[in-house]
Structure formats: C-alpha cells, structure tokens
Design brief:
heterodimer, A: mainly alpha, 14 helices, B: four-stranded antiparallel beta sheet, 8 helices, globular
Chain lengths: 339, 245
C-alpha cells in the first residue's frame, strides 16, 4: 500500500504570500471597505480643498447623513440576515409603512408610545412569521410570497388609514430617544451602530448565525447534520419583519408623521445595499459589516451627488451601476470559491 | 453467542408504493470491520444507505445496534448511534470554513450560545493534522469551497473521527476523486479500522473495494445475493456476481 500523501507533495497554496491589497480583498466585506474608504478620502479631500463649493464636512451635511442612514440600515440588516439564510423579503417596505401607521394611530388614540412601538415591532415580527410560514409550508419561492406581501400590506395601509398622513405625537422623551443627540451624535445613528454590533455578534459569533450560514449555504448538508433549517429560516423571516418595524419607528420619530406611500421602493434599496455589501443572492455568503457599508455607500453617493447639484435621475443611474458592478464582483468571488 | 454485531439488518423490506426497493435483506457489520456493499445501479444500495442513516424507515424487518433492536426515525438518531454517513456532494457547506464545517450543528458555545471560536479552531487544526492527513490544507480557516473533492471528503471524515463515530457509511466515496486522492481515502479507511472504527464502502468500483474491504455484500434487485469474506473469494468471482445476478 502506498503511503499517505506527504505534505511535501502538496501543491503550494494559492493563499500564501499575499500582498496587503489582496489580504484586504480576501476579507469578508474587504472589497466594499476599500471602495468606501477610497470614496471617503476623495470626499474629505474635496471638502478640504473646496470648503465653499463642496460642503461634505459641514455639520449640517453630516447630520443629514446620520439621520438618513439608520432607516435603510435597519431594513437592510433584517433583509440581509434573511438573504444569508437563502430567502428574500420584498414586503419589508410595506411592513415598514404599515407598522409605522399602526403605531402612530395608536399613539394618536392615546396609547403611550412606549407601548405602541413594541406593538408595532411585534406586528412586524408576526407578518414576517406569516411570510415564512407560507413560504416553507408550501415550498414556494419567498420572492413570490413576499411580492404578495408587498401588495397586500400596501393595500392594508390604505384600508386601515386611507391615503392621508398620520401625525405622530409621542411623549417628548420617546422622541428624544430616537431623534435626539448624544455628544453631538444623532440618537438614531447610535441605535443603528448598536444594531450593527448586535447583529454582527449574532451572525458571526453565535450558534444561530452559524446555522443561518449553513442553511443558506447548503440546506441539504445543514439538515443532514441535524440543523432545523425551517426553524432557522422562520426566525430570519421574523427578524426581517421586526427590523422593518424598527425602521418605521426611527423614521416616524424623526419626521413626526407617517405618509402612507413612504415605504415604496425601500425593500429594493435594502436588497441593493445587501448586494453591494457582498451578500450572495443564493444565500450563505456575506457579512453584517458589509451590509452596513453597503447602506453607507448608497447614502454617501446620494449625498455627494446632491452636494454636486446633480439632477435626481443621476442618483438612480449611479446606484444601479453600483449594484450591477457589485453583483459581477461577488459572482467572480463565488466562482473562485467554488473552483 | 459471542459479542453482538455492531449493526445488524434483520429481514428488511422497503416499498415505495407499488415499487419494492428492498426485499428480505439481512446483513451485519462487526466492530472494526470494513464491508464493501456492492451492486449494479438499481440494486438497492442507496435505499440501504438511507435506511441505515435514518432517512427511510423499513416497511418490514428491523435494525439492531449492539444486539438491541432500534428504529431510526431521522438522521440524528443514526448519528446518536454512532453512524456517520458521508455523501459525495451533500456533506459540507462551501461558503463556511473547515472549522465551522467540522462543528456545524454541534458548535462549542458558552451558555449564551456564543461560539468558542479559538477552542474550535485549535481542535480543528489538531484533527486535520493528526487524525486525517490532508495534503495542501494549511489552515482550518480555509473555505471548504476552495478544497478539492478528496480534501472535502477528508474534512467530512475528520468530522466523523472527532465526534467518535463507530461506523462510517461512505456512499460512492471514490467516484469524483483523483487516483492520488483515492489512495489517500482508502488508506484513511484502513487507519480508522486500526482504531476500531468500522466502514461501509458503498460503491460500483470492485477494485477499490477489494483493496480495503474484509468482507463483501453483493446486492441485486433489492436483496443480498452474496456475502463473502475476502479470503474466500477473488475479484473475478465478485465481478461475476455483480454483473450476472
């Protein structure tokens, strides 16, 4: 019998002796980090060179950025966990509006915001569970089920409330909790940072996260080893719905009212942020940091184009290009990974 | 009677509606024995594997482990009994690291469910270096998707070794491997046998089976047609049974 292959016969690993650049690129979310840092350097340099024409570093602009990021951030974190588990939720934009209107009208009817807000989150979780249950029970593509959810809950908003805006007048302490400032930093931005840290630990350092990656990466293998993949997916659906409601609370506390049409298109922006952040559309790949960088990148680019007074349609075209480029890049990485 | 057999199938039949996949099948696996389960396509090998690993339940007959009658209702039942099934393509998650694959579903955690990453990594490193020899893997952080077919199988075997399995059920283990990788895998099976781990090689390839197996069970049309020790047979006789029955 021939001896077991000796280590000396091993082909030299492709991962040895990488340059610093390659090391960053091979990190999860490394490529997006590189793009993000480069963009920030260019923006900051531009703002320092032309402080009057390009007000990127002005306090007003930074405040706008910090207020804008958390809403899409919450939606994208929930959608991201679900995407890594291998499913989609297109209904989060509608759920975001529905739960916000529910919460605002409860507060309008005299309920404390500290009760109405958890009720809104609970509603979001329940809708997520319903999406998940229908998807898994009948073995349907979640894309179709939640497309139904998108239309259903958008209609439900109009049925429940009509096409009028709802004022949101909570206790002042509730408002300051979500849109006040702490050491000059917007409260909503602190919330999203806390969520990012929490989700990072849940997904990358906790048993549940490992099961999410296993479920999305190879469902048959995960099941064979004894992971209850249906339960993992169901929890991920619930997280997506719950985070949509959280986004609704943050947005509503900031503006002080809810528009029935405000969530339209947000679900696609959230998925876009996930794709830009390195998540695979097939599931099983990605990182929370990547998702958050994706959100920040979308908002930074939007902000820069606004500061440059570019017409609105440039925003969409720019984001669109970014999504496709990110998808191509991720696909190349995946192919390399499966070689 | 001497010590009971590690695993025994007693008169097992399995029907899927009108189709009878297995008919009155009985055989056993002893401790530290390598058994070759041979047969042509459609002989019932896959159904037998699924039955032993708990995916299918027998229509008639029963399984016994250590002489005790048992009924596997799912994969984890057979895993608890010490049986690890290694399928060709479905065992691992490509997008996760070797460490995470080895501990998938059996993660070491603190009491809040957070992963003890450093500890798992050390164990994975240890298992990769000592229990199974895999060439070309320099780190347990490597993504499984970057490994070759043989390396993947070695990781799956490493997982079984670490969790102290008693029987490895290898379903067509060599069909996607290079010649060198096949040699390494068959050596691995012998090495485990020396540590008293039994293996069942389910395969088409009589030559690979003949290299390492102590005994051969040949199936045809859902039942056993031949059960022979290696000392009492030749590769020609085995081939005849597979082809002609």
């Amino acid at each position: 019998m021939t001896p077991i292959l000796a280590d000396s016969a091993a082909p030299r690993s492709r991962t040895q002796r990488q340059s610093f650049l390659k090391q960053i690129m091979s990190m999860p979310a490394g490529a997006i980090l590189l793009v993000f840092v480069t963009l920030q350097i260019v923006c900051i340099a531009g703002a320092l060179l032309y402080p009057d024409d390009f007000r990127y570093l002005s306090p007003q602009n930074l405040t706008i950025l910090m207020k804008a990021i958390p809403v899409l951030g919450c939606l994208a974190l929930g959608a991201g966990v679900l995407m890594i588990a291998g499913e989609f939720d297109l209904s989060i934009g509608s759920v975001y509006t529905f739960t916000a209107i529910l919460m605002a009208s409860l507060v309008g009817a005299g309920v404390s915001a500290f009760i109405a807000a958890p009720l809104g989150i609970l509603t979001g979780v329940m809708i997520g569970l319903l999406n998940g249950h229908i998807t898994l029970r009948f073995g349907l593509p979640s894309f179709i089920v939640t497309l139904g959810g998108l239309l259903f809950w958008r209609g439900a908003v109009l049925l429940y409330n009509g096409a009028v805006q709802v004022r949101f007048d909570p206790e002042p302490i509730f408002t300051s909790l979500f849109s006040g400032t702490l050491f000059g930093i917007n409260a909503a931005f602190i919330w999203i940072i806390l969520f990012v840290v929490g989700f990072h630990f849940l997904l990358h350092r906790h048993r549940f996260g490992n099961h999410v990656f296993a479920t999305g990466g190879n469902r048959v293998a995960a099941e064979a080893i004894g992971i209850n993949t249906n339960r993992v997916k169901l929890i991920a659906f619930a997280i997506a719905g719950g985070m949509a409601a959280v986004a609704g609370i943050i947005a509503t506390a900031r503006v002080g009212s809810v528009q029935p049409g405000q969530g339209a298109g947000l679900e696609l922006q959230a998925i876009a942020a996930c794709v830009i952040g390195g998540l695979s559309l097939r599931g099983g790949r990605g990182s929370i940091v990547g998702v958050f960088l994706g959100v920040m990148l979308i908002h930074t680019i939007t902000d820069v184009l606004l500061l440059l007074r570019a017409p609105g349609f440039y925003l969409d075209m720019f984001i669109a290009t970014l999504i496709v480029l990110a998808a191509i890049f991720n696909h190349l990485i995946e192919r390399r990974g499966l070689a | 009677m001497s010590t009971p057999n590690l695993l025994e199938l007693h008169n097992i039949s399995k029907s899927f509606g009108a189709l009878t996949a297995l008919r009155n099948l009985s055989f056993h696996i002893s401790e530290g024995e390598v058994v070759g389960l041979l047969g042509d396509n459609g002989a019932g090998k896959s159904t037998t594997v699924n039955l032993i690993s708990g995916i299918h339940k027998p229509t008639e007959g029963y399984l016994s482990v250590d002489g005790k009658k048992t009924a596997f209702t799912c994969r984890s039942d057979s895993a608890d009994a010490g049986i690890e099934t290694i399928y060709q393509h479905t065992a691992l998650v490509d997008s996760l690291s070797i460490t995470r694959n080895i501990f998938m579903g059996r993660e070491l955690t603190d009491r809040f469910g957070f992963l003890r990453q450093a500890e798992m990594r050390d164990i994975a490193m240890e298992v990769l270096q000592n229990a199974v020899h895999i060439s070309g893997i320099d780190s347990p952080d490597t993504l499984v998707g970057n490994l070759s077919g043989g390396q993947k199988q070695a990781v799956a075997i490493a997982r079984a070794v670490y969790f102290k399995k008693r029987i490895l059920l290898l379903d067509e283990p060599t069909s996607a491997l290079s010649v060198r990788e096949t040699e390494a895998l068959l050596n691995q099976v012998l090495k485990l046998k020396a540590e008293n781990v039994s293996s069942v090689l389910v395969t088409h390839n009589i030559y690979h089976a003949y290299q390492v197996c102590d005994r051969f069970v040949i199936m045809s049309h859902g039942t056993k047609v031949f059960d022979v020790d290696k000392a009492d047979t030749t590769i020609n006789q085995l081939t005849e049974y597979v082809v002609l029955t």
